[in-house]
C-alpha cells in the first residue's frame, strides 16, 4: 500500500489524503490520551477523518500533516466537550485528583500506578504531556496545535508533570508539599497565575 | 549505586521517569491494531469522491 518513502517532491504532487492511513495509529493513540476510553477515541478519530477529508484544501502542502490532523482531533474533542454542558469544568483536574489515593511504592514507578495517575489528569494536561513528552512534537509545534503561546505550553507541561509527581508521591511532588500546606498552596497559586 | 547522584538531580530524574512512562503509555496505544472501520471509512470517502 503506502510505502512511506518520505522522499522528495513526489509527496507534494500527491493528494495528502492518500497519506491518511499512515496516521491512523497515531491519531488513535492521541485520541486515547485525551478520552481514556477506546469507544470515544474511535468516534473522535472517525470525526477527524471525515473533517480532514472534506477540508483537505485547507491543509498547507509541505507542512506537517500529522500536526494538522492532531489539531483537528483536539479541536473536535474540546468542542464536543463544551457541547456536553453537564460536564463540570475541571481543567486542572483538581476535582478528579481529590478522589485519588497515592500509591505506595519504593521510589521506582510502577506502570500501573502511572496509568492510574495519568487518568486523573485533566485532558489539557494529558494533551500537553502526550504532545511534548510522548509523541515527540516540539514545544513550538505543540503551541501551534493547541493554539496557545509556547510559554503556555511549557508552563502547562511543567504543572502537569508536577501534578503527576505529586500524585505518584515522587520527590518533586514531595517538595511541593513539604513545609506547611499553606506555603505550598501559595507557591502553586503563584506558578499557576504566571502559567495560565 | 546511583543514589548519591539521584539526590543531586531529583528533578531531572523524575522528569525522565515521567517521560519514559508517557512514552510507554503512548506506544502501547500505538501498538493497538487500527480498527477496520477507519480503513472502510476512507474507502467510502474515496468512492464518494469518485462519483462526483
Q: Which two chains form the greatest contact, residue counts included?
A: A-B, 33 and 26 residues
The averaged pLDDT of chain A comes out at 81
Order of helices and strands of chain B: HHH
| Average of pLDDT of chain B | 81
Largest sheet of chain B: none
Query: What's the Cα radius of gyration of chain B?
Result: 22 Å
Domain RNA polymerase sigma-70 region (chain A): 23-86
Pfam families (chain A): Sigma70_r2, Sigma70_r4_2
Domain RNA polymerase sigma factor 70 region 4 type (chain A): 117-164
InterPro entries (chain A): RNA_pol_sigma-70-like, RNA_pol_sigma-70_dom, RNA_pol_sigma70_ECF_CS, RNA_pol_sigma70_r2, RNA_pol_sigma70_r4_t2, RNA_pol_sigma_r2, RNA_pol_sigma_r3/r4-like, WH-like_DNA-bd_sf
Task: Name some characteristics of this structure.
heterodimer, A: 196 residues, Rna Polymerase Sigma Factor, Chain: A, 67% helix, globular, disordered C terminus, B: 52 residues, mainly alpha, 3 helices, RNA_pol_sigma-70_dom (chain A), RNA_pol_sigma_r2 (chain A), sigma factor (chain A), DNA-binding (chain A)
Structure description:
The complex is a heterodimer of chains A (196) and B (52). Chain A has two domains: 17-83, Orthogonal Bundle (Rna Polymerase Sigma Factor, Chain: A); 94-195, Arc Repressor Mutant, subunit A (Orthogonal Bundle). Chain A has eleven helices and no strands. Chain A has helices at 10-13, 20-35, 38-54, 65-83, 94-98, 111-120, 123-134, 139-146, 150-168, 171-177, 181-195. The longest helix of chain A is centred in the middle third of the chain and has 19 residues, at 65-83. Chain B is rod-shaped, with a radius of gyration of 22 Å. Residues 1-8 of chain B have low confidence and may be disordered. Chain A: Belongs to the sigma-70 factor family. ECF subfamily. Chain A: This is RNA polymerase sigma factor.
